[in-house]
Amino acid sequence: MRVRTGIIGLQHISPRPGTDGALALAMANVIISENLVEHAFITEHVLGYDEFALSVREFKPAQAAAICGINAPEIENLARRYAKHGPSAILFGYGMQRYANSGRTVRCIDALAAITGNIGMPGGGANYVQRHWKQFLADLSGREYAQAKRLFPWPALARQIMEAQDPPVRSIVVTRSNPLNQLPNINLARQAFKATDFVVVIDFFMTDTAAEADLVLPCTTFLEDEDIVISSWNNYANLYSGGY
């Protein structure tokens, strides 16, 4: 598939759908084997580098080429350009997490930024989703009407729920999410949810979280509703009239 961004780029490399992780691992193999890593950044900020370097040692470009449908020299040249000519930015959207093992794929791509030091600098980073739409919907959140405001970091959500005081968390409403499948420590998350008095889930699937809820409220899909549709990659908001 050749998208408009690929047309204006200096080079367009198109791996088979779902093989981005294999491409990232092969690039890491080249970067590490040719000593193109940023040692100072790794020493200061990266945990588990030695284990990662060992794990990608056998994942050579020729192996990835057969998986991705692109030739090995292209993978090698891409890895060298990315590592040598920084700062280098990686941009990817929601689709990267919409297939099997996609969470691991994102971690493999993030690792490229970590081992080359392309984190925390202008023009660098592994940037997952550009949330331009927030500037349009910021005034529609209704946060000014909230009686109390508390923000819990997603990775620590379960622990924060269990430790919260003044007041403690007594009820949970979940929408557009599946925390009992996505949080780092699912067993702890399940304990946190069970420790509350009432859990409500709004979803159109019986997710792992919905199965543990006291009340499940079904909602409409985009085919059944009229709504404002936003994009992660541009500044436009569209009115969608549904598919009926």
UniProtKB/TrEMBL annotation:
SUPFAM superfamilies membership: Formate dehydrogenase/DMSO reductase, domains 1-3
Pfam families attached to this UniProt entry: Molybdopterin
Keywords: Iron, Iron-sulfur, Metal-binding, Molybdenum, Oxidoreductase
Molecular function terms, GO-annotated: iron-sulfur cluster binding; metal ion binding; oxidoreductase activity
Ranges of residues in domain Molybdopterin oxidoreductase: 11-230
InterPro entries linked: Mopterin_OxRdtase, Mopterin_OxRdtase_prok_CS, Prok_Mopterin_Oxidored
Stated name of the protein: Molybdopterin oxidoreductase
Provenance organism: Desulfotruncus arcticus DSM 17038
